[in-house]
Amino acid sequence: MNQFQYVRANTAKTAIGALAKDPSAAFLAGGTNLIDLMKNGVTAPPKLVDINPIPLTEIKKQSNGLYIGALATNADVADHKLVLQNQPLLSLALNAGASAQLRNVATIGGNMMQRTRCFYFNNPDLPCNKRQPGSGCGALEGYNRMHAIFGASSQCVAVNPSDMSVALAALDATVLISGPKGDRRVLFTDFHRLPGEHPEKDNNLMKGELITGIEIPDNAFSKNVHYLKVRDRSSYAFALVSVAAALNIKNNTIKEAQLAMGGVAHKPWRPTEAEKYLVGKPANEATFKQAAEIAMQNAKGLKYNSFKLKMSPNTIIEALRTASGIA
Amino acid sequence: MSLMDTKFFDSKAVEGLDRVDGRLKVTGAARYSAEFPIPKLTYGVLVTSTVAGGKIQSMDAKKAEKAPGVLAVISHFNAPQIPGYSEGSNPAKGQTTKGQPLRIFSDDTIYFYGQPVALVVADTLERAQFTAGLVQAQYQKTSFQTGFDANVSSADFPSQAKNRNSNGDYLRGEADAYKTAPVKVEAEYVIPTEVHNPMELQSIIAVWDAPDKVTVYDKTQSLKGVQGTIAQAFKIPVENVQVVATYVGGAFGNALRTWPHEIAAVMAAQKVGRPVKLVISRDQMFTMVGYRPYTWQKVGLGATADGKLVGISHEAISQTSTYEEFTEGTVNVSKFLYACPNVNTRYKILPLNVSTPTWMRGPGEASGAFALDCAMDELAYQLNLDPIELRLRNHADTDPERNLPWSSKYLKECYQEAADRIGWFKRNPKPRSMKTEDGMLIGYGMGTGSFSAGRSAATASIQMLADGTYTIQCATTDIGPGTATAMVQIASDVLQVPVEKIKFQLGNSSFPKAPSQGGSSTVSTVGSAVTAVCVSLKNKLGELAIGQGEAASVKPADLTFANGQITSKDQSIKIAYADVLKKHSLPTLDVTEESKSGDERRKYSFYSFSVHFVEVNVHPATGQVKVKRVVSCADAGKIINHKTAGSQVIGGAIGGIGMALMEEAVIDDRFGRYVNNNLADYHVPVHADIPAIDAVFIDKKDPYINPMGSKGVGEISLIGMAAAVANAVFHATGKRVRDLPITTDKLV
């Protein structure tokens, strides 16, 4: 672990200012991922700007949706009445992630910034383009059981490990960002990015920018939702495949459908063609099967993760079935 | 009076005495090896190799040596000579391996990835950790091999076996008789590398008390082993080495040997002239303290149409390191578990560029039982016979390997009891035939476990004070089973005094000799010594009570010992134990006794037995397996403490579930290194994976093994469990997964 400076910021402004002065510094929120990465030598910021004192923990109803401050903890959000009432899918996804201990300290903003759990990224003496651009992708020809089947590049086949982000992608959330040049809003689905030629960039956050919160627009997804996570053990394991399914069903007809998949791509994966297919169809097994098949177009397996080509559609069908409430 | 005549627990059923050290453990007052507050303590952090084979060319330690608080950067370039290394002796030697144990910092050879190449010693842990990152080693890489499949043709018989006839192959009757049997099964099974990963990391504090005298606070299952190894390595008298392991936070076998990092800590403490604490890191737990080796097995079973075994063939190949041969009893279980006229086994090892494996709970027998009892299940399905019925038809009434009667065997009772409890006979045996209301596939499976019930020599001392309290000492350890608790109960029962009056001290090499805590034999071995020393104390008290006076005509045989009081038949003597000491103005009464096995070992075959039943649910679409119920029934002789023994069975079952469904240490052969060497990526079960486990004991005394009649529980609680889970998964899904772990991707 490197030696580093530690400062606290009481406001977003001072935090952003601190990073503007020292671009190689990093924000510290819950620290559940960053500190591990520092301990393992994966990253070595010379300065940590602790943003925990900033009052960004609020969860509130706004005119057009739900606002959640970036420093609200995963546990607080998952158990919050407004979340349970309005966006139960988010609660399901949060509770499927990590362990109770981690959820107690991990924050919403930090969760979005979580780095991949790719073995090669996390071991500094193995090649990884994400950790060290140009060093090669260890996983491409290596032990890639956990890796991507959608949207990967020859540079990187890593997946985003967050459960929460899968739900937020499905719910069309918006990310609130403050930076040296002011505030901006980014659609959640545009926040994370695919690896392409620059796997070192997980997302579109610009240098020195701070996530201050998220907004989830009001929707009709308070009833027919499900988050299904397939994993190697019942808790404290990352998704092999996960599916967030949000349906609006009227008279057994699907009026709206929003889906996102985890454990399959460098970002939460929205199978938009499958969503389009679902709309207007009856909520039944045949519909779900067809949607799953559409969702899997362009999926590509690697040596150790080909099982995801079968596990993913099965998980989509199961998630839709549970969300719709059909037996 | 013969020890075997000692009456045990006949009058009262001993249920679960709470652990005598339970309060200390849960309140944090129990002191583990790394927690001893030692003045002037320094901290060591190991730097490890980043290549899997080659030579260390150079090492840049300049920056590190100048870093704040650094006292030494030790590598083979500057390490003090370990006196024992130069003699060709094997200072870091285990008991069963052949070859040259890794001599830390003695030359430039790299045998495996993660091998220690330097030790940084600093005044704080943080400084030592930081500085370890500054040490830069340059390697001359050579080719290395870590892939099992790619190298399996290089497997060979262990050297020890080569010195014997037939390379250690076992043959009873005709070889490969299964091939011509009316019904046969032939299948291959794979156990991946599994790592012990106890909660407590391997840790040691080394303190030189004088130039030729050292104390180590060490995580170990073998006080005398560490003591002897350090004495030999540093050429100091054995009695000048004190090893303290008051508490051990789990071990499962990985603290049976003295490992190179322990030698390094002692060496470093000598070099810097201050105590050194060395706690290895979680990733180092994968490469420095052994593991269950990757093992390939092939089992052939042949039977008559009515389910009598005609032939068993069992072949295994296990990985070992290139510098030591590790062997274990992988194929042993096939020689004795079932009655069969024709049995042949073969065991080979495959040296790879990895560190040396070691025993991991159940050791080889657990790997072997997985293959054998899965094959038995396959055979039962081929025969269209209930798996229990198949086992009953092939029950070994005597030990077919040694041609001896069993000392005791209640395996049939185990089958019956456990089958009843789980509702085995209500199942529909057809695969994929049972479902829950919400569509989960239900599966039932079972497996058998067996492990040698050992007893070796141990010595215990007892000191009785005039206030009627007793302190027993023995250089055994407690890696979790509750050793002191069981010993206090045994002493209480022999002495006939309340448990509160008795203290059992362990975890110090200066106490009377005991063997390593391994192979499920501590209660048997140490319990016998405790019995012996308590009987001896009673005899002494009796002699003193009779004394020289008017009672001198009373014969010792006429004395009864009950409720802390000695009474003679004629009532002329009626005296509390403590008053005997007072009467003779004795401040204490001290006795030491050794106890060991005898002739019975030649007359009988001693084994513990277990049966595991499992119910699983498997998701038909995602393949996710959930263990819903477990019943484990053990024939482990007389159970001293149902609560602690039950906990051992529960722990073993959890270990077996992990083995069956999750555990797998993966090496990327291109780099020769583990990729999932942390507890987030190397999966063991979490609470949510484990249902309530029903641990049952037959609880019948073995008449020959030891005075208590107790056999071991530790290994048999895991052995056979993985087979039970795998067989349950087959029943649920119709899919045979023969390579562990049975992860969801193999079932989807």
Strand portion of chain B, in percent? 15-25%
| CATH fourth-tier homologous superfamily of the domain at 224-324 in chain A | CO dehydrogenase flavoprotein, C-terminal domain
Compressed to H and E, one letter per element, the order of chain A equals: EHEHEEEHHHHHHHEEHEEEEHHH
What sort of overall outline of chain A do the alpha carbons produce when their principal axes are compared? globular
CATH level 1 class label of the domain at 224-324 in chain A: Alpha Beta
Rg of chain A is 19 Å
Largest interface comes to: A-B, 36 and 32 residues
Question: Strand content of the residues of chain A, in percent?
Answer: 15-25%
Biggest sheet of chain A: strands, sense, closure?
A: 5 strands, antiparallel
Unreliably modeled segments of chain A: none
List the total number of helices of chain A.
13
Number of helices of chain B: 17
- Which structural class is indicated by helix and strand composition of chain A? alpha+beta
Describe the structure.
The complex is a heterodimer of chains A (327) and B (748). Among the domains of chain A are: 1-54, 2-Layer Sandwich (Uridine Diphospho-n-acetylenolpyruvylglucosamine Reductase, domain 2), CATH 3.30.43.10; 224-324, 2-Layer Sandwich (Enolase-like, domain 1). In chain A, a hairpin with a 2-residue loop joins strand 10 and strand 11 (253-262). In chain A, the strands form 3 sheets. Chain A has a 5-stranded antiparallel sheet with strand order 4-5-8-6-7. Chain A has helices at residues 12-21, 34-39, 74-79, 81-86, 88-96, 100-105, 108-113, 119-122, 164-170, 188-191, 272-278, 285-295, 307-324, and strands at 5-8, 26-28, 47-50, 59-62, 65-69, 174-179, 182-187, 210-217, 224-230, 241-250, 253-262. Chain A is of the alpha+beta class and 327 residues long. Chain A is 31% helix and 20% strand. In chain A, helix 5 (88-96) packs antiparallel against helix 9 (164-170), helix 11 runs antiparallel to helix 12 and helix 12 (285-295) runs antiparallel to helix 13 (307-324). In chain B, the strands form 8 sheets. Chain B has a 7-stranded mixed sheet. Chain B has a 5-stranded mixed sheet with strand order 8-17-15-14-9, covered by helices on one side. In chain B, a hairpin with a 4-residue loop joins strand 28 (667-668) and strand 29. With 748 residues, chain B is α+β, with helices and mostly antiparallel strands. Chain B is 24% helix and 25% strand. The longest helix of chain B has 25 residues, at 522-546. Chain B contains 17 helices and 30 strands. The A-B interface holds A 1-3, 41, 99, 117, 119-120, 123, 125-126, 138, 141-143, 145, 228, 230-238, 240-241, 307-308, 310-311, 314-315, 317-318 and B 50, 129-130, 133, 619, 621-624, 626, 661-662, 666, 668, 670-671, 673, 675-676, 680-681, 683, 685-689, 743-746, 748.
